[in-house]
Structures are given as structure tokens and as C-alpha cells.
Amino acid sequence: MEKSTPEEFARWHDMVLPDGVVTSTGSYPPPPPAESPDEESAQQNTILNPEEQQSKQSKKRQLENGQLNNNTSSNGGGACLFSVDLGQMRSFRLFYSNQECTCGQLVIASLNARYKILHFHNGGLDKLSQILEQWNAVRAKSKKGNDSPLISTSLQCHQFAVLKPQISKSEQHPEEGLYEKVAWDFWRSCTNPDGQIEDDLSLRKAIFFGGLDQTLRKEAWPFLLNVYPWNSTFEQRDQIRNDLFLEYQNIRKKRLKGALKMGAKAWTYVETTVAKDVVRTDRKNPFFTGENNPNLEKMRNILLNYAAFCPQIGYVQGMSDLLAAVLIVLNEESDAFWCFAGLIQRSIFVEAPKNDTNMKLNIEYLRYLIKLMSPTFYDHLATCQDGLDLLFVHRWILLCFKREFVADDAMRIWESCWSNYQTSYFHLFVCLAIVSVYGEDVVQQKLPYDEILLYFSSLAMHMNVDVVLRKARGLLYRFERRDKIPCTLANVCQWQRTGMWDGTGGQQPEIECAGNHEDMDACPYMTTNDI
Q: How are the residues of the chain apportioned to helix, strand and coil, as percentages rounded to the nearest 5?
């Protein structure tokens, strides 16, 4: 059913009020009921007697002022429709006045801090909440006890933020929009007759901006994940693939024979954890649905074989999420294994099980990036207890945004990161972009830390990947063109490589000592003025 009008929308969602019920509102009164043609004609000809006319005008004034009792509709009632332009709104708040959360008030806040209040005396507020939950334009932020004067402090408030992310052209990379998605024709144009990719920088730049066509991923991912060298020939890649297939079979045989480099107790834990994670990973995806699905066995084999192959890492929860996407693209068990191994080497899992060094490094870099590029958000976090721990980004980094975006959108982010164009830390600029695009409400409403966690968690699967990626590329462009950067961010970009820092001939910024080095005796960028 096409819900193109407010009336159809109301009927579709069962929001039409029964006869005899008219909603009222203190700040946004519904229009008075329309006069019937006969009544209008009678008024024009002054047929109504003075008492009837005075009574009718009194009721009309009461209705316009929101004072008419719900059960005193003069025309038998009917639904009163209300529409609002979400582009002009900032948030919705639902204040519940009963324990069932069906009655209460809807408070709409505009961008210029004006408020409209709609009262739900006869139920329906729960239905409205359910509808708002389904819309990508609005996301729930909190549901908690509140001290609103409108209702008792023991009741609840449900708040929704209006999400309309937009970035101006000045915020974007100047080359934004020049690159289309890399497809087979462009890929083949980058290879010579022997199959070598001679100008991998141009190809990686195109992938950075445009991503890969879905049909090309199986061909391109082994290059991006360091399985094949960019300058390898067709013949060399065939030999590499055969050698890796045999090596994978040897890893599998050693595991099945029990020739492991970890203790029996540790291996039992790995097997148990893998078994639990495999059966609950992406089961809604057709590739993994159904009982006795052979792809589940492939996933289980790869995870166990990787734990045996790399016992210093073993298995960490979350790896199955990453492998699922790789396995869907590569399909073949051996190919997926080696691409997965390349992906893990790029991730924070490498040292995470023991000392969390990589995660700590990523968080430190991101903290300094936020301080430099989004100081207002940083200042708000600094006022929150443990705010600068950035716990809300841990899942983003650990699972490479897989649970924040739908599958294809997450893969677009992966490919931009894997391209290694100008930085190996583009994922941190993606984090910074999310904070920059969606974090304004956090600052304006001065959300406490627990609500910040809830707020960003509620954005999962509702963020615009195009906006986030354009913003991230723009932030990287702005960062690399700063006159000065702190020494704490000196390793974020590939400064030393010719052409990698700035293909248009830009200058490397001056690196200055930030003055806080807990683990260093002296900063290599310290000057005599810093001493």
C-alpha cells in the first residue's frame, strides 16, 4: 500500500482514532473540524439563532486553544492529522504517563529550540514509538527515568534524535566524485599482458575513492590482503595459489593429528569457543542458513586451522564475524584462509589476546586525532569520567565496522582501508568521521558517558556510509595539509614515501613535540625551546 498522504499513513499504521475522540495539544492545536456544506451555508445566511451561533463559536475557540474535552466533539469526532518536516527538527521525546507506556506527551524540538507538545490521552504513544524505531531518519537515544515537570519523575522518557547527516563540499576531498567504482574494465586496463599490475598506486587510489565492483572482489581481495604481490604475473600467482593450498592442507593435517603448539586446556577452550561462535555468525545470510550447511564447516575449519597455524594469536571472539565476509567472497576454503590470515595481520588481533597493545595504540592515535580535528567533542569527553577511554569505538575497530554497517557498506569501508592510500590508519579517520558527523547531539545535549555508549550503539545499521566515507577522506586531506601536527600523530601517515603523502605535490607538515611522553626519555622532535 502506498502511504503517500498523512491519511493513508495513519490508516496503514492503525493510528486513526475512533469516532468521538479528538486529540488536543497545548502548543500545536489541531485544526477545527470542517463545517458541513449545509452548516457553512446556514452561517453565511445567518439562519442559526444567536444562542446556537454563540455556542458554536465558543466551542471553536476552545478547540483552537486546546481546551475542548476529548469527548465533546461537536461533529462526532474523527482523526486529527499532524505533519512535521524532519529536516527542521532536532529531536523527539516521548514522555510516558502510565506504566504501560501508551499515554503521555510527544515533545518535538526544532533546530532553533522551539518545542511543540502533543498529548496522547487515549493511548497510541507506544505505536508511535515502534514506528519511530523503524525509521532510518530517527534513532532512539535513551529510555530512562527523568525529572520532566510534565509527568511524574518515576515514569519514563524515550528520546529520538533526527539524523540528517550532510557534509558540505568544502569538507570533502577535492578529488571526491572523480572516481567510479572499480570494475573489470578498469582493472584489466591496469594489468600488462603478463598479468602484472604496474601502477598499483593509481589502482589503489581508485579503490580508495570508489571501492570495488562486487564481482571483482574475489580477484582483487588477495592483492589487497597481501596474498599476491601487485607485480606478480598470472603464472606466478598460479604457483603461489598452489603452494598455499598445499601448505593449508599440511596445517589441517597437523591439527587433526594433534600436533599443536599450545596446551590441551588452551586448545579445548579454542574448540569450544569456535563451535559456539560459528553457529551464531551471520545465520540470516543465505550463505550460512540451514542446518548442516557445508559453509559452516568451512568456517569452523578455517578458524581452528588458523588457531593452530598462529598459536600466539589463537582464536579471539569476533574473528568469526570477519571471516564470514571473507568466506562469502572467496568461497574456497584455502583461498579464504589466506585472505583471512592477511586480514588478521592488519587488525588489532595480532597482540590483543595478551597485552592489547594494538588496540591501545589505535585508541591513543584516535584520541589525539579527535583532540586535533574535533576539539569540541574531545572537550566534552574530557568532562566525562573515563570518557577519553573511547569505549564506544572499541567494537568499531575490533570488528572493522562490520556490526555498524550493512555487509556491502562495511566491505566498502574495508576496501578503502586496505588500499593503504596515504595511510595505514584510514579506519581511524572513519571513526573520526562518525564522531564528527553524528556526535553533535552528544555535545549539545551534554550526554553523560553511559548515554554516549548507548547513543553510538543505537546508530548501528543506521549510518550513511557515503557520508561517512566522504567525511573520512576529507578529514584525511585536511590532516595531511596542516602546517603542524603533534609528534603523537607522526606515524599516522606514510610521510616518507614519494607520492604517498601527496600526489599533487603538497609539503609534509612540521611535526612538533606534544610534550607528553610517558614511555620515552626524549622526543625525537623536541627542540631547544621545549627543554
A: 50, 10, 40
Structure confidence at residue 420 as a pLDDT band (50, 70, 90): very high
CA dist 119 and 110 (Å) reads 18
- Residue 138, CA distances (Å) to 8, 73, 90, 386 in order: 21, 34, 10, 28
Last residue of a domain, one of 346, 379, 404: 346
Q: Are residues 370 and 504 in the same domain?
A: yes
Q: Are 402 and 325 in contact (CB under 8 A)?
A: yes
Tens-digit pLDDT profile for residues 474-500: 999 999 999 999 988 988 987 544 444
What cell was used for 86? 524532519
Cell of 405: 554497517
Say if residue 203's pLDDT is above 70.
yes
- For residue 35, give its domain range: 30-62
- In which element (H, E) is residue 108 found? strand 104-110
One domain for residues 250 and 142: no
Any idea what the CATH number is for the domain that residue 407 is in? 1.10.472.80
Give me the residue label for grid cell 567533542. Answer: 377
Confidence class for position 32, pLDDT limits 50, 70, 90: very low
Q: Sheet of 156-162: strands edge to edge?
A: 115-120, 104-110, 89-96, 156-162, 138-145
Q: Are residues 244 and 308 in the same domain?
A: yes
Grid cell 600488462 is found at 192
442-471 burial, b for 16+ CB within 10 Å, e for fewer? beebebebebbebbbebbeebbbbebbbbb
Q: Are 224 and 416 in contact (CB under 8 A)?
A: no
* Structural domain contains residue 179: no
- Using only C-alpha atoms, what is the Rg of the chain? 30
Looking at the fold, whether 423 and 526 belong to one and the same domain comes out as yes
In this structure, are 92 and 42 located in the same domain?
A: no
Instruction: Establish if 47 belongs to a structural domain.
Output: yes
Q: What is the DSSP letter of 213?
A: -
Please count the structural domains in the chain: 4
Residue 160, exposed/middle/buried by CB under 10 A (0-12, 13-18, 19+)?
Answer: buried
